[in-house]
Amino acid sequence: MAPPPVAAVDTMDIHAYPTECTTPVTLAEAERLTERYLSFDDDAGRGITNRITEFDSCFVVVAIFTPPPPTETRTPPSPLPIGGTVSTIDKASGAITLWPTYPPDLVAEHHAAAVRTDRLIIEETWPASS
Question: Where are the alpha helices (DSSP H) in the chain?
Answer without folding.
Answer: 27-37, 104-116
